[in-house]
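Consider the following assembly input.
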Amino acid sequence: MSRDTGDSLPGNGANAHGPDSDADRGFLDRLFPTGFRTLFRREVLRFVRRPRNTFLPPAITNVLYFSVFGVILGGRIDQIAGFSYIVFILPGLIVLGAISNSFENASFSIFHGRWNEYIHEILTSPLPYTSMVLAYILSSALRGVLVGIIIGIVGLGFTSVSVAQPVYLVAFMLVICLLFAGFGVIGGLWARDFDYLTVMNQFIVRPLTFFGGVFYSLDILPPLYRTLSLLNPMVYMVNGVRYGFLGYSDVDPNASLVVLSGLTLAVVLVDIALFKRGYGLVD
Amino acid sequence: MSPAIRARDLVKDYDDVRALDGLDLTVESGEFFGLLGPNGAGKTTFINVLVGLVHSTGGDVSVFGHDVEREYQQARDAIGLAPQEFNVDRFFPIKEVLEHKAGYHGIPHDEASRRAEEALKTVGIYEKRDTRFDWLSGGMKRRFVLARALVSNPDLLILDEPTAGVDVELRRDLWDLITDLNDDGTTILLTTHYIEEAERLCDRVAIMDEGRKVEVASPDELMNRGTDRVTIGFRNPPTSAPSLDIPDVRDSELTDGRLVVTAARGTAIIPDVLRELESQGYEVSDLDIKRASLEEVFVDMTRKESAIEV
């Protein structure tokens, strides 16, 4: 029996032994223990081996978005803040794809595991709850980032793309993917049926994103709707990534990054608490 | 060394249903321990409390001295579980599923891969290593969940109905395998509906009913508490049942000229019975003893014969 699941564990019984003791383990092994790495790897392999279900759909969807909204309709729309319409909407489409996939990955993986009960393989293992949650969140966020990159590459086929603020772009992409992966964990624990997953993605995430300034600038809205839009967290995400690409944002990017980072941390802590409590997982 | 399992006053309530009702149970390290009980007795709930799939409502339970909730990592690291239901990851070939399970227990990838192959060979499905679980036959699925329980080299192996629905040959194979594991020091906790399985394999068995432990003893001890049947033939059959004034005899009746005597310990009363019959002038020609089975004792203790699936 090995003892590298997350914390150093003492031997238990007569057969206790371990191939990798603390002394043999390097810094990275201690930071990312075998148990965590195994679950992270399992989660990544799950979506990497099914590109037709995970990467191809957002690529095709965004070819359609760029074709219809960017080229066909966008050619008739005036520039926004000095940018052509297709360039203006590109960051928003990346956000839409990235957060949808981050959310969907975590929620589907957890719910499917619960539905078929194979999540018991993880729950009955000596993995710390924190490792379980972080493995789900990081792998789902990785899928979101990869989908964002794919959408960016698709966008390159329609227009030139430049990055004005690379640090902000990376920071916002990481934070929003982690945040929605964290929400996905909650969704996966809360769902009682596959319909719940559809409801969450189609009726909550997607509308908020569409009204979050993906296809327009807040400046074109009447004052009341502009103020209401500021209550929508998607506004800060879309504008954060837009600031990374274009150096333009309807809202202060620094304040957005701080608030979103704090929100992400809070959601991750809620996820860990739910796992510890066994919400949706144990009787 | 701490007991493999120690449960004290363990309670689990589901709304208004009490699944475990103050269960006290100790399984010593190295034991082959059986849990018997009718459906709904609380066996699977108890197992799920041990592995963390059910939170108890009250009481304490520890595995090798580690509380299953406060020290859940240590407790779960010691346990290999082969559940009754097939809760297996369907996304990956079975060898990878085993590698993942070993990895969750902190076993590095190369070692996990070696152990996965070893476990598949042990249960005889190595040639199916690249197959996904859904494509295995029923018997292979049962073998696989055992392999998954073994891949972390557990000190405590929990088998929940491991031979339910498998053919005779596979059942014997599984019996041999888990007997060897027990001989090598692994503690086994077995739940089963097959009384013969418990009689044959277990050092001790606990009979549970309605969330409580009814009795704990070795199969032999339990059978000694059952009612044996001694059937006696005569050269000069009596016309009515001879009266037997022997304390341990519970009943005697004449059937087709043969005397059927029921008693708590049939072998112990035979000399007294023969002496008594001889004193009454009867000449015994033959004698047959049928010991109480564990199943009869089990039914007697739980009084729910209809719930048993044998």
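DSSP finds twelve helices and no strands in chain A. Ask yourself how this observation constrains the way the partners meet.
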